[in-house]
């Protein structure tokens, strides 16, 4: 595909995904990953991980005071073994099978959330489990948000965005380093990922006004919609 055509299509997807994630806390991988897979499958997941590391950095810099540091302390280190497992899955399993399995798991998580009657207690066991699963799915599919978003869905809006930003920043760096160590991160992936960074910044700047208008209830509804679409997108991508 010509570089200009790739830049326009992939850049639009990254911009829209950044816009959504700035307001809700996740969504960049959901919107952009299917597009990049259709445009240039060899670029995934390294190119998108390179691009997405910028957005949580911006989020953390602007909303660091709302981060749940205790949650990060338990969940973020757990992403390391998850990332190792995800890198192994990239080399060992058929991508379609992996994507479909993750997609089904995400939808089951949404169903369980809707069935429940209130916020879950953020225990160390749940935080470690969510961090591990996020490491697996983030490294293998570039979509790491659903496990953590489901866990934090009842928390105040600013806390959700800031904490997810912290998870994504540390976790994406872990995934990139793990892929590089496994020989699955190429120079071409890095190049295309860096080229798309300006679209991330534009989406972040335009999405900032949305963050001031979302209540906790509104954020939870938006999160469940975005997470559900991520599951559906993964399943659909596996069937293409």
TrEMBL record:
InterPro entries from the UniProt entry: TM_pro_TauE-like (IPR002781), TSUP (IPR052017)
Keyword terms of this UniProt record: Cell membrane, Membrane, Transmembrane, Transmembrane helix, Transport
Compartments where located: Cell membrane
Signal peptide: none
Topological relation to the membrane, as annotated: Multi-pass membrane protein
Keyword Lyase: no
Transmembrane segments: 6-39, 46-65, 97-115, 127-152, 164-183, 189-207, 219-239
Domain of life the protein comes from: Bacteria
Family listed: Belongs to the 4-toluene sulfonate uptake permease (TSUP) (TC 2.A.102) family.
Protein name in UniProt: Probable membrane transporter protein
Organism: Streptomyces gossypii
Lineage: Bacteria, Bacillati, Actinomycetota, Actinomycetes, Kitasatosporales
